[in-house]
Every structure is written in structure tokens, then in C-alpha cells.
Amino acid sequence: MGSDCRSRGDIGRAYSGYDQQRRWLHAGVHYQRLAEFLLPSDDPRRPESLEKAVRWFFQGLDALGVRYEYSSVPYENGRLRALYLPGPAGSEKKPLIVAVGGYDSILEEKYPVIGKAALERGYSVLTYEGPGQGEPLRKYGLKFTPEWEKPTAAVLDEFLRTHDKPLKIVLFGMSMGGYLAPRAAAFEERIDGVVAYDVCFDRHESAVRIMSGVKQNPLLLKDPGVSWAYNNALWTMGTTNPEDTLKAFSRYKLAPIADRVRQDVLILAGAEDHFIPFHQVADFEKSLVNARSVTTRIFDRLSGGGEHCQCGNTSLLHAAVFDWLLQRFPVA
Fold it and tell me: How far apart are the C-alpha atoms of 254 and 275, rounded to whole Å?
């Protein structure tokens, strides 16, 4: 029976090439990003931590030879970051996937979530940050807006200024993006399909538990999860207390505008999502009275996808999204 007696140098060489190049992405998007993510918003270490995450992410793309176009889009009194990942030959015959995050997102997170998988399947991807996210929040102080069609339109306008209009555009919204993407689609006619990953029909309802709990018992802020959710709301929404925060979140409901959504819609949901009440799946389905089609995929604990955004099994997300794309937007 043999034994592994490799030296540290041997091990280093064993991880050369693709695996070693990929480490930049892991270092930036996962490790350094999480370090920044958990710091208080006013922590002086936060800007440097994010700068490292972004720098290492792009070093990873460069090392792997991933083609990309970075842009900075004018918006109100600041700018929005956008990243275009052109697909291989033939991608122009497929929908352009436009991806946005949610309550706690930065631009770079979308590559491991959907960008890489889309490129491998022959799609082009455009990711962006809006108010309340990433650089727009940190550098320009832009807070969340329920009128997500405005930043989405700004990003599409800038992209189409220098690129041909895609045959189809599918807007993919992650986490709170499950509200943001359908909201934008309700007012943006250039969007042909929308993915709510996961459902976020009523953001206010999911905020009540945290905000009301803190109001009744401030000691709950000693819980790291509660403290992060509460303080991130104050930072991204521009509020100062639970009452004002809940009032701000009351505008993040799809019910008043869902009948304006006329695109093909894919709703994803984890049966045990700890952020979004499960009944919002049915609420959203019933409200989409004018959608061209509505498809719902629900994942349970056994599949590994029962939690928020299928964090236990991302392959389920990819299977659901790309199967749906092929069904609703077949390549001619």
C-alpha cells in the first residue's frame, strides 16, 4: 500500500493551473467578501476589505481568461457598477441574462451564482448593482428604492448604447431581488422574462419579525443574526429605528403592481426558507393575472434546496433556470 509523502512544494504544484487560478475568485467572493459582510457599516476596516474582495475577484477572472467588460453607469448623484460577460459564439441567439442581487449584495457575487453556469451553457450575462447595494451604497450613499425599474433602465440604456439589442432579455433577481426583478419587469418593456430567486412577494412581511422583535426586546440585538439583519436595514434603507424601517419596507410589495407583469415568470422557493414566509409563493402566483406564463419550482429539505436561495444545493437553481429558459426561449 502506497503513502502520500509529498512536500509542501509538491502540494503547491498539484494545485497549479486552473485550481490555483480559481483561488482568486474564492478568496475574493467567498472569504474576503464574508469578512466585509459581517463588519458594522461604519467599521473603518470595511472599505479596505471590500477593495480586496473586488481586486481578487477580477484577478481571478483575468487568471482564468474570462472575458468581461466593466462599466460605471451614471445614476442620480452617483454611479452604478455593471459587468458584462459575453458568451461564446452563438450566445447572440439566446436571451441575455441580466442579474441583480438583493438586501446584502455586491456585483461580484453573481458570477459564482449564475454567471459561470450561464457562460458554460452558452449565454451572455450582464450583472449590476443598484441603490442600497455594493459601491452605490458604500461610495455614494445611495439607499434602496422600491422603484427598481429606474436603476434597471439606467443600466440597460448604457448597455444598449454600445451593444446591439439582444433578441430577448431575462431579468434574474436573487434574494430580495425576488421583489426587485419583478418590480422592474412590471415597468420595463424591454424585459421578456423574469426569475424570482427566491420569491419575495412582500418584503415588509419578512421584515416585521425582526423589527417588531427588536422594538419589543432590544436584547435580541445580542444575537449576531438579528443584529446584522437589523443594522443592515438601517444602513441600506437610510432609517434610524424599527418604526421608520418598517414604514420604508411597506413600499416593497408586489401586490399593487403584479398585474402589470406581462412576461414569462419563473418563481423559485425553498420550502423551509427562514426569511420569506412560504405562503408568498401562492400569493405571488395568484397575483400574476396578466403574465405570459408562470412556472413555479419548490425545493424541499431532502433535495438540499429547502433553504433560502437553495444555498444547500445551487445545482438545483441552475437546472431549474436553464431548463425553463430552453422551454420558454428556445433557440431558433
Answer: 17
- Residues 137-180 have pLDDT tens digits of 999 999 999 999 999 999 999 999 999 999 999 999 999 999 99
Closest CA to 194 of 273, 127, 263, 139: 263
Enter the C-alpha cell of residue 227: 443584529
pTM of the predicted protein model: 0.90
- Which of the residues 91, 124, 175, 287 is marked catalytic? 175
Answer whether 310's CB lies under 8 Å from 299's CB: yes
Pairing mode, strands 264-270 and 193-197: parallel
CB 290 within 8 A of CB 263: no
CA within 13 Å, CB half, 10: 4
DSSP string covering 88-136: STTGGGSPEEEEE--TT--GGGHIIIIIHHHHHTT--EEEE--TTSHHH
Distances (CA, A) of 231 to 134, 224, 245: 16, 10, 10
Q: Residues 256-312: pLDDT tens digits?
A: 999 999 999 999 999 988 889 999 999 999 999 999 999 999 999 989 888 888 888
DSSP structural state of residue 14: H
- 227 catalytic, yes or no? no
